[in-house]
Task: structure prediction
Amino acid sequence: MSAKTMELGVALKIIKNNLIWLIALPLVAMVIAFGISKYYLVPQYTSSAQIFITTNVESNSEKETTVYSEQLRTNMQMANTFNTILKSSRILETVRSEMKLPESNDQLANKINIKSDKDSLVFTVSVEDASPKRAQEIVNKITKTYQKDLPKLVSNNKIIILEPANLPLEPTSPNIVINTMIAFVLGIIGNILLVSLVYLFRNVIEGEADLEEMSLKFVGDIPLIK
Result:
C-alpha cells in the first residue's frame, strides 16, 4: 500500500497487536544501558583546583595602582595564552617525568579541563581519572609546576593557588540515571518507528478505504460461516 497519513484506528490496532514488543523495547533498552553504565564502563573521578594569575608589581611609586590595573587588563586578554601554556608539552612533560605517568602528553592533555569566568583570571583546573587519588595528585602537580614555570615565561606574573585539588568521593561519569533515561527515550523513538514501519508495510485489506487506494471496486461482503 502507498504511504499516507496514518489513520488513528489502524495505528491503535497495530499498537494493540504489538503491545508486548512496544512495552518490552524501552525496558530492554533501559536494562542494557543500566548494565553497561554500572558494570562495564570504568567510573571516572574529577579533581579540581583553583589558581589565580596575578601581576607582581615591585614599584613603590604612586603609579603602582595604575600599573597594576593596566597589567591586569592585559592579563585578561592573554587568558587563552595562559591556558595554552598550562596544557603545553613544557608543563606536561615535567609532570609526566616527576610522577612517572604512563600517558603521553596528548593523553594527559585530554584529561585536563580548564575553566574561567569571563573577565577573570581565576582558573579552575580539573583532571579526570579512574583513580580519585591519582586525579588529585595530577592536578596538584600541574598547578605547582605551572606556578614555578609561568614567571619564567611571562614576566611580572605569578600563580597563587587559591584552592588545592580536592579528593573526589563520587564518580562524575558515567551518569547511570541519565544514561538509563536516554535509553528509555530511544526505546520510545524505536516504538514510534516500529509502529510506522508496520503501518507502511502492512499487506492486509481491512476495509473499503484500502480498496479505493488500490483503485479496486468493492463488490460485496463474504459472510463468515462458523
Summary: The mean pLDDT is 81.
